[in-house]
Amino acid sequence: MQKRTFLKTSLWLAAGAVLSPLLQACDSTKKMKSNRTTVIPPPKLRRTEPFTLPPLPYPSDALEPYIDRQTMEIHHGKHHGGYVNNLNEAVVGTVYADYELDDILARITTADADRKIRNNAGGHWNHTFFWQIMKPGGAPLPEGPFIAAINNTFGSFEQFKAAFSEAAKSIFGSGWAWLCVGRDKSLFITTTPNQDNPLMMQIVPKVGTPVFGIDVWEHAYYLRYQNRRADYINAFFNVVDWVEVALRYNRAMVG
Ligand code: MN3
């Protein structure tokens, strides 16, 4: 027993000797990180108009039978509309009051005081994006650098689809799955909880520009699919505008 205690103590001491330089290193990384985040300059462009709900780019029944009219009406009018209204209220009197949406995403923090803006700015950005990457009947993948990058990164489009669907299925609770272009211009799949977005560089572990994504909040599919999230994800692939996704990829590669 005593020997065991002795061993345990020695192990802790040894671990401490190994860990303390590591912990110090982590600490200075943290400091560097927080220094980096505090020097992001305020944006040059200033917003003068309130945020508004963009109209759906197609009629609300145009994605039938994959996404039903009632879901689209509630999702766009009530949910997305709600994020826009709440965002306009939330920014009043804050440093973000006249920031454009992308500037808010880049600067928003995990602070409690930022929470309402984080949720609603993310909600507005994410849904605006989501309506635009869908199209009645979908549009096939065009030849070009995007499909080449998909094949290089994932092996094939089918393998990409499987990995992306798995990521979307595995989100616990509400959130989004994304395909992003990283800072190193490589493609990667990631997920965010709630209305977080990979452009929220103060919040997400890996920053990227989304080029494709799916909303897996239950409000996005429950009326037609109930608890069958996997069926909704499969159906969604029938209405993806891959021409739009490829364009976004090309823009992210030069941006
Ligand atoms: Mn939604």
CATH topology of one domain: minor pseudopilin epsh fold
Please report the total strand number as a whole number. Answer: 3
Biggest beta-sheet profile: 3 strands, antiparallel
Which descriptor suits the 3D outline? globular
Give a quick summary of the entry.
The chain has helices spanning 2-38, 69-91, 101-107, 115-132, 145-154, 157-169, 222-225, 229-236, 242-254; strands at residues 175-182, 187-193, 208-215. Among the domains are: 69-132, Fe,Mn superoxide dismutase (SOD) domain (Helix Hairpins, Orthogonal Bundle); 145-254, Iron/manganese superoxide dismutase, C-terminal domain (minor pseudopilin epsh fold), CATH 3.55.40.20. It has 255 residues and is mainly α.
